[in-house]
Amino acid sequence: MGSPTPSEALPEGDAKVAAVRSMFDTIAPRYDLVNRIMTFRMDVGWRRRAVRSLGLDAGATVVDLACGTGDLCRELSARDLRPVGVDLSFGMLAAARTRAPLAQADALQLPVRTASVDGATCGFALRNLLSLPPFFAELARVVRPAGRIALLEVAEPPNGLLRAGHRVYFGRVVPLIGGLLSDPAAYRYLPRSVAYLPPPPELLGQLAAAGFVDVERTLLSTGIAQLITATRRSPSPAPA
């Protein structure tokens, strides 16, 4: 099942899962190249900042969800952390450039033991998931108490002029670049997929409801990207 055309409604349910898997299988070979070009390599800095924001000690285990070709896994390794990558798309895993252990799995049903990892990362994939509350619940299940998460996603600049320019670039230029270098349908779909994201207060509230504290949202590069960080809530002490 391919990506929807601009005139089609965005897929939901199982159709969305199938479309996302097929799309990323298709664009995997040139995924990194297109990312670097369309973000002017700013995505490299965003990932480094996300990894730094975890604040975990060397040797900590971090699961990277929707790991793609391994960009975040490589950044985690560079900071002496121990990444494990998970992605729905076998095509992305086949194109991965990392020595980290990799697994093909749905981020809503992770093959990871409860409270077994020190942290989790996810780069620009929240809008591609079937549903965010179950994903946040799964994060809360696998991350140990006091563990950290760092989630990157696209955003819109708060400044009106910048927002208008970004909409033109993201909605018209990015599909053109993606179409020239990779799959046109996929890069027409990706800008439209932002519609899946809930408003920021709702998204942060969902994380808090799932069991995270110190939930923070930071805008990056004038607001074209966002970094969401949080800490897994520790259990309350038993009453004396």
Reconstruct the topology from this structure:
Layout: H1 13-27, H2 31-38, H3 42-54, E1 61-65, H4 71-78, E2 82-87, H5 90-94, E3 102-104, E4 117-123, H6 132-142, E5 143-154, H7 160-181, H8 184-192, H9 200-210, E6 212-220, E7 225-232
Parallel strand pairs: 1-2, 1-4, 2-3, 4-5
Antiparallel strand pairs: 5-7, 6-7
Question: Unreliable segments (pLDDT under 50, ≥5 consecutive)?
Answer: 1-7
CATH superfamily: Vaccinia Virus protein VP39
The helix tally amounts to 9
What's the main sheet like? Answer: 7 strands, mixed
Gap between N and C termini: 57 Å
- Element string (H = helix, E = strand): HHHEHEHEEHEHHHEE
Main CATH class? Alpha Beta
Question: What would you say the CATH architecture is?
Answer: 3-Layer(aba) Sandwich
Number of domains: 1
The count of DSSP E runs of length 2 or more, i.e. the number of strands, is 7
Structural class: alpha/beta
Dominant shape: globular
Radius of gyration using CA atoms only:
17 Å
Q: How much of the residues is beta strand, in percent?
A: 15-25%
What is the arithmetic mean of pLDDT? 94
**CATH third-level topology:** Rossmann fold
Strand arrangement, largest sheet? 3-2-1-4-5-7-6
Helix content: 40-55%
